[in-house]
Amino acid sequence: MSHSHPFYYLWECPDGVDDSSSTDYGNITAPSTTASDEGVLTPSTTSTRTLAWMDDDSHAADTSQLAGIQSPAGTLLPPEPTVLLTEICKAAEDVAQLVGRFGPKMAATLTRSPIKAMLFSDDTQLRLPSLSYADSFTCRLTELWKKPVSLGVKAPLLWWLWDALVKFLDHSGRSTGFKLEFTHACNTDMVLPYTISITLKGLREIEMTAAYGGNFSERRIISAAIEAFRFPVAGFDETPVTLAVDQTPYRGDGCYGDALDYLMPRPGSIWRSAMKITKEIINTKEEKRLVTALAGTCKAEDEWSFFVVMEIQDSQCKNLLRRLPPEARKFIKKEHLVGKEGGSFSEMQNRPPGPKD
Q: What is the pTM of this model?
């Protein structure tokens, strides 16, 4: 693509990060208490099952390979519920890391419909490996103390789970729990023998129920904890501690690909693979909206109490902005968007209405 095109920087990254080489964020991994890439699921035999993993190499298997298993007739076999929950847990821990690193303003920003639509312009990229092309559902969403809402449009399971996970894992108290009930929305040659519901509850617990029908109804309830992300802590000498993603200064020219890789850095993350800003969906108005929203996640002096960004989180947000394309960075500087007061996260905008309001 010639650099004479006005928006070449949206999809080209001449000096950016190449996944084929080592990067400054390559060592970051999502925290996990439930899964290991080398483990094998060993569910218990009771009706309420929990995830456990075996480290014995003789039993090791990559669960992602189960996605392509077919029956002799050519029909794709449905995934074992424990395999499905493992994939969901991995995705949930990526979200926990994102929310912990960047703070509540980023969490609220990424659940806005226009921003989410730009990040995941092709929702089919969010399909879970174990479900493959059969990952298409409608969703009935219930938030604690609120009425259920039926979301009739069909989309992959993770598309529906994104908002609930971000809000649930955010410390600003925007939600204390969700229940998502999924209904299969397309006819494929993979017939799920069970219906799926996911509950986010407690401190950081994700619970999946697989309800089998037929003459002998059965419910398998499988739960796992989502470990909270925590920044590294300096030792007694108070030496500044940085994340692996920040240890090497960024030297690229900047492009949306590098920024999104920094936002969700774990190699193999399904979110990272699905996030793409392409020339087909971007125009001047949309680009300004996205850039303004990302710049607005930085710390401001008039933040409302629910949206307080820590200094180390503010550093992560500013590092993200450094990876944006040059024209986007010029726009941020020109409009003084970093730390701008009076925005949607300000105390003035969020205070309770007064007598004259």
A: 0.77
